[in-house]
Amino acid sequence: MIGVHEVHRRYPRVHALRGVSFEVHAGQRFGIVGGSGSGKSTMVRLLAALDRPSAGEIFFQGKRIDDLPERRLDFLRAELQVVFQDPMGSLDPRMRVRDIVSEPLGRTDFARAEELLAAVGLPPEAGERYPHQFSGGQRQRISIARALAPRPSVLVADEPVSALDVSVRKQILDLLAELVERFELTLVFVSHDLAVVRRICDTVAVMRRGELVELGPVDEVYREPEHPYTRELIAAAPNLRAEIARLKGRT
């Protein structure tokens, strides 16, 4: 479904990606993990054709996309949708939620908006309100509903829970897992936290300083990491359930 072949991305002062190659198959839950400066967000932009590689090729459903002009990317815009880290930054504060959710359709479709709000656990009346009237977790639910509006086959989630409280983080991860299964989506999930990736993905690509240093089934990589950097990520990754239990114990 997605093919990344020897991709480089150079900026004036940074070589953000260095010869990265991987494939994402239909129905896969593919995690990309790495720290700040690893190239994760650059890769998201390339997969969504919001940026172009300096070298290499990117394919989507067998069609090369890295060299296509914007006017020929309509199929990608419909089939691949992105959920970003900061929901408030991706939601127009002047628009009602029903219009935000309908926007990718190119028209206001109240029935579709209501259906999607229900799918992400929000009541129908939420459509009449504005983004600032919701909590961070609720705004991320709205972002997910908006991403699902055009019925994509691929959902790319770029650090979708990193700005949320721990307990809310678990709710959003559970919601994403449910929706991926319900709508038979392919998921590309990007995070700095390997424990979060392990919770929702079946395959993981570990990135460091623009390079892909490890790739494989997530449980296998977690159990027997080959690269020293992967071992560092595992040592640094908190256990989500343990953290939630610890916070509950404070109350």
Automatic annotation (TrEMBL):
GO molecular function, one term: ATP hydrolysis activity
SMART domains, per database record: AAA
Keyword check for ATP-binding: yes
CDD domains: ABC_NikE_OppD_transporters
Single GO BP term: peptide transport
Transmembrane segments: none
ABC transporter domain segment(s): 2-234
The organism's place on the tree of life at top rank: Bacteria
Pfam families, A to Z: ABC_tran, oligo_HPY
Keywords, in A-Z order: ATP-binding, Nucleotide-binding, Transport
InterPro entries cross-referenced by the UniProt entry: AAA+_ATPase, ABC_transp_ATP-bind, ABC_transporter-like_ATP-bd, ABC_transporter-like_CS, Oligopep_ABC_C, P-loop_NTPase
Recorded family membership: Belongs to the ABC transporter superfamily.
Protein name per its UniProtKB record: ABC transporter ATP-binding protein
Organism in which the protein naturally occurs: Amycolatopsis taiwanensis
